[in-house]
Specification:
The chain has 190 residues and is mostly helical. The protein has one domain (2-185). Helix content is 73%, strand content 0%. The protein is built from ten helices and no strands. It has helices spanning 6-14, 18-25, 41-48, 50-73, 78-93, 106-116, 118-135, 138-156, 160-176, 178-185. The longest helix has 24 residues, at 50-73. The termini are far apart.
Length: 190
């Protein structure tokens, strides 16, 4: 029964906004009010440079990785693990500590995949890097990796519940990137 407490705990961990905390600690502008308005690593790079963005990226990935590793260490059943994955993701998108204004979820999703299985995280990050090397467009890389993540989960993990959760996460990631998709289609995405 106590394992079910991991689900709200994962949401709370996901709700810690790395972008906002990093910007506050480094004396930078609030990412929700500057640049694209998105509290994520890409916008933090616009505001504060590569170091601030790298710290934000690491923090966002850890928000996905830590709850999953805890759940796996406790040997939770597949349903609880799937809910922990989704709760940490939702926490990042809609953080209770920051007026429900969160990021798009790419780095946190990477942390989630890495926590589920390191080779899954490797497949997802490898996809991102390959697409980025070819296109030089971060959002396109994230979108391709997001679409392929449930496929990788199916072949690597073979857990129907996790496949379903990662399909839902991928759909939400695509929806959160709708403005990027529009710019990509118009040839205007940087």
């Amino acid at each position: 029964m106590i394992e079910w407490l991991l689900v709200p705990a994962a949401y709370l961990i996901g709700s810690v906004s790395s972008a906002i905390i990093v910007c506050q600690l480094m004396g930078l502008d609030d990412p929700r009010e500057n640049g694209s308005g998105n509290p994520g690593a890409t916008n933090v790079m616009r505001i504060g440079g590569k170091k601030a963005a790298a710290i934000t990226l690491l923090g966002d990935a850890l928000k996905g990785l830590i709850p999953v590793l805890i759940a796996k260490a406790l040997g939770v059943e597949s349903m609880v693990l799937a809910l922990v994955v989704f709760a940490a993701f939702l926490g990042h998108l809609y953080p209770v500590f920051f007026a429900f204004q969160g990021g798009k979820g790419v780095a946190t999703t990477f942390g989630l995949t890495l926590g589920v299985a390191w080779w899954l995280g490797l497949a997802v990050s490898g996809t991102w890097f390959l697409v980025y090397k070819i296109s030089k467009i971060s959002s396109l890389s994230a979108l391709v990796a997001a679409v392929l993540t449930p496929v990788y989960v199916w072949f690597i993990i073979e857990d129907t519940l996790l496949v379903a959760v990662f399909i839902l996460i991928s759909v939400i990631l695509l929806w959160r990137h709708k403005s990027n998709i529009q710019r990509l289609m118009a040839g205007e995405e940087s």
